[in-house]
């Protein structure tokens, strides 16, 4: 019988990344048919529990012990321990085994590569959900150039391993497929749990709007969160009571708070930290007129899709990945143009008919194209032939 091993050692923190969401939702659904062993660590176990993924008859969890240490040292320890375990892990019947590496980070991709060398008949399903932009030519924002450089350098040795040894590569959009021209690539556009959204709507039909816009995502240089505060200052110059609600946390939280204070926006921006899936988050989306996602580079992402399922339009920079990822329901403005972004928000605040029309397009698009059940079945059919 076919079986899966999920190698998911990169999961970290109180939030959840798009790649984490994908492997959790795939495991939830694929384990109904095939046995899955999840190799992770304490933070991965906690993340799965928060998202209601529990061990069951077809799903077992193997947690690798990682010694307590400062963040950077513990990060390095995860890599070395994972590599060591990949040399001693025994796999019965490798020809019927599918190994899913949950990220391109070294603690997931290196042990998967080693296991593929040890067991050539094993089928390696590699994931590559974010290509770091070239920090010298592709990501001009100097404030974040060092972070971009580190991510770019970390991916350099991994890409050829995946290109030459993975049986399948899961990517986020059609542009990413071009990075692996000789591989069997599968585009994973992400998804939304529309069943839970329907349940919430049935129980909460009349919710008053409270926020002009909602942001959801990591407080990370990639997401443009500090820039969003500058954008909101322009919005407030036109609508002095306009409120932005921001869901998420991350390394830029102190800088975001400082920027809010410097621009005297304390009454106009609500910082909620992480809000997990469920009624609380759904209420915030329902209370918002639109979603804003000023990512400076991205390969797709699901944060906007989740908000769009509530019938509200999204606004984002015109990133190449969004052409295929969000063909409907999203207003796109020139990359890095903060004033154009602010004007797009103001335009939708000024014109409710236009805002509602794009919102209806967004909801219809998500419901027809972004169901988790559909997405999990689609990808499974591609990797198991």
UniProtKB/TrEMBL annotation:
<dbReference type="GO" id="GO:0016757">
    <property type="term" value="F:glycosyltransferase activity"/>
</dbReference>
<keyword id="KW-0808">Transferase</keyword>
<dbReference type="Pfam" id="PF00534">
    <property type="entry name" value="Glycos_transf_1"/>
</dbReference>
<protein>
    <submittedName>
        <fullName>Glycosyltransferase</fullName>
    </submittedName>
</protein>
<dbReference type="InterPro" id="IPR001296">
    <property type="entry name" value="Glyco_trans_1"/>
</dbReference>
<feature type="domain" description="Glycosyl transferase family 1">
    <location>
        <begin position="200"/>
        <end position="364"/>
    </location>
</feature>
């Amino acid at each position: 019988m076919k079986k899966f091993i999920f190698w998911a050692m990169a999961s970290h923190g109180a939030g959840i990344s798009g790649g984490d969401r994908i492997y959790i939702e795939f495991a939830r659904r694929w384990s109904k048919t095939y046995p899955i062993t999840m190799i992770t660590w304490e933070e991965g176990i906690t993340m799965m529990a928060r998202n209601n993924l529990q061990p069951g008859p077809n799903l077992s969890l193997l947690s690798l012990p990682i010694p307590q240490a400062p963040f950077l040292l513990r990060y390095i320890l995860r890599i070395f321990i994972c590599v060591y375990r990949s040399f001693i892990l025994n796999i019965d019947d490798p020809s019927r085994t599918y190994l899913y590496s949950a990220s391109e980070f070294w603690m997931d991709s290196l042990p998967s590569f080693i296991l593929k060398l040890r067991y050539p008949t094993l089928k390696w399903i590699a994931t590559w959900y974010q290509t770091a932009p070239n920090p010298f030519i592709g990501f001009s924002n100097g404030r974040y150039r060092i972070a971009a450089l580190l991510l770019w350098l970390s991916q350099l040795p991994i890409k050829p391993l995946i290109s030459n040894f993975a049986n399948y590569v899961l990517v986020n959009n059609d542009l990413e497929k071009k990075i692996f021209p000789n591989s069997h690539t599968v585009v994973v556009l992400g998804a939304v749990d529309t069943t839970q959204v329907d349940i919430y709507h049935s129980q909460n039909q009349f919710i008053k709007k409270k926020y002009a816009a909602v942001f959801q995502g990591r407080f990370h240089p990639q997401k443009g969160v500090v820039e969003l505060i500058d954008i909101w200052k322009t919005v407030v110059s036109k609508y002095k009571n306009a409120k932005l609600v921001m869901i998420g946390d991350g390394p830029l939280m102190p800088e975001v708070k400082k920027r809010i204070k410097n621009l005297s926006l304390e009454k106009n921006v609500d910082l909620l930290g992480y809000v997990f899936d469920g009624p609380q988050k759904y209420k915030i989306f329902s209370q918002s007129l639109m979603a804003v996602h000023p990512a400076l580079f991205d390969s797709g992402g699901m944060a906007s899709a989740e908000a769009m399922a509530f019938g509200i339009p999204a606004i984002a920079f015109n990133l190449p990945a969004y052409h295929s990822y969000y063909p409907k329901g999203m207003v796109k403005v020139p990359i890095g143009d903060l004033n154009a972004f602010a004007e797009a928000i103001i335009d939708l605040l000024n014109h409710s008919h236009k805002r509602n029309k794009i919102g209806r397009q967004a909801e219809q698009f998500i419901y027809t194209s972004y169901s988790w059940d559909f997405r999990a079945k689609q990808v499974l059919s591609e990797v198991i032939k």
